[in-house]
Design brief:
The chain is an alpha/beta fold. It has 14 helices and seven strands. Helix 3 runs parallel beside helix 14 and helix 9 runs antiparallel to helix 10. It is globular and about 55 Å long. The structure holds iron/sulfur cluster (2 copies). The site of one iron/sulfur cluster (SF4) has 13 residues, from helix 11.
């Protein structure tokens, strides 16, 4: 996570020391600030997938055509170089990382903090201690229709119930909002933790999964309802719901700092972040955590983890606004960092994202 540096903006609003005089705020601030050292990059581990979903952003654009480098030693050397360059956290993603377990082992041996984005169909060996994000797009009927995968949720639960690494990530599309309630009940029954994502269209996508204003509002309602119903199993906060279901996307609300939107090499993620393809090359002009996603429609949970957390200084004008930001960061760390436990949320009010000060 890269916190934007703007201490003068803090002093012009509320004094930061006033906020930290609130005991629960200070305790949460001390808890989360230990992780400000995290600097991420992302890596496509394989260009193959064992299922094929509508609206998959991996199979948009050029990256799907990069050759696979399956040489374990090359990946080990890449991780060493990344570490030397200041990267402390890796996101191993698409197409499907579980198909190359030996590469995951090599990355983990060099870089112990990170996460893997998987469809959960094939279990990743327990020796790989990264967080594991299992993508859920609806109930089994919907998964069969949209992802062409039979009994996917059943298979995912069989593979990852009682696995401390696992977080199930339910992606709200325009047509699966109601079924989240049954899915959440099944996951909670099995003792699985979950968080939420919002479908963000690939560039040029106008298909049936794309949200509109009404479905964003319904999604927000379902998120907050489930957060209250399953507080032990749902890793989320009211502010997470607001940030990811506003009519304006994350870039318009917060200003995205990934290189694709932030060509300056001097600011935050624009300086350090790389998105490696399967051939271990990267292209600065398209680098972000969800390449080939339409920036105007981007509400992706992975994007928010960097974009919202970076805007600390915008959230210091009122205790509830700062508490909301702390809830967001606490959620982000619980979802992405092994061994970090989510605390109770500090703010249950709906706080609208503050505009740039
Ligand atoms: S599981 Fe992921 S990578 Fe595979 S097709 Fe679906 S969205 Fe794409
Ligand atoms: S798709 Fe999202 S994360 Fe990527 S550059 Fe655009 S706004 Fe940023």
């Amino acid at each position: 996570m890269t916190i934007e540096n703007n201490t003068s903006a803090i002093s012009e609003k509320m004094r930061f020391s006033d906020l930290l005089a609130i005991p629960e705020v200070r305790a949460r601030w001390e808890k989360v600030r230990k992780y400000f050292f995290l600097r991420e990059s992302t890596y496509d581990m394989s260009n193959r997938c064992n299922i094929r979903c509508d609206g998959c952003y991996y199979y948009e654009g050029d990256k799907q055509f990069a050759a696979e480098n399956l040489n374990v030693e090359d990946w080990r050397l890449l991780m060493k170089a990344e570490k030397a360059g200041g990267i402390t956290y890796v996101v191993l993603a698409g197409a499907e990382p579980s198909l190359v377990p030996e590469l995951l082992e090599a990355c983990y041996a060099e870089m112990p903090l990170g996460s893997i984005a998987t469809n959960g169909f094939k279990k990743i060996p327990e020796s790989v201690g990264y967080k594991i994000h299992i993508s859920v797009w609806g109930n089994d009927e919907t998964s069969l229709r949209v992802r062409r995968a039979k009994n996917l949720l059943k298979r995912q639960i069989e593979n990852y119930a009682n696995d401390q690494r696992a977080v199930f990530v339910y992606t709200f599309t325009r047509d699966n909002i109601d079924e989240v309630h049954d899915v959440a009940a099944r996951l909670a029954d099995a003792g699985c933790r979950m968080t939420f994502n919002v479908f963000s269209s690939p560039v040029g996508y106008q298909g049936p999964l794309r949200h509109d204003e009404k479905t964003l509002q319904l999604t927000r309602g379902a998120m907050i309802d489930l957060l209250n119903r399953y507080p032990r199993y749902v890793l989320f906060s009211v502010y997470n719901a607001v940030a990811h279901t506003s009519e304006a996307g994350l870039h318009e609300l917060y200003g995205c700092s990934y290189p694709r939107c932030n060509p300056s090499q001097d600011i935050g993620l624009g300086r350090s972040f790389r998105q490696y393809r399967t051939d271990l090359n990267w292209d600065r002009s398209v680098a972000c955590c969800v390449p080939d996603t339409d920036c105007a429609d981007c509400r992706h949970y992975a994007a928010g983890s960097a974009v919202v957390t970076a805007r600390l200084y915008r959230h210091v004008n009122h205790p509830d606004t700062f508490k909301s930001w702390l809830d967001y960061v606490d959620t982000y760390l619980a979802v992405w960092v092994t061994g970090y436990d989510k605390g109770e949320n500090l703010c249950e009010r709906v706080i609208h994202p503050p505009v740039k000060g």
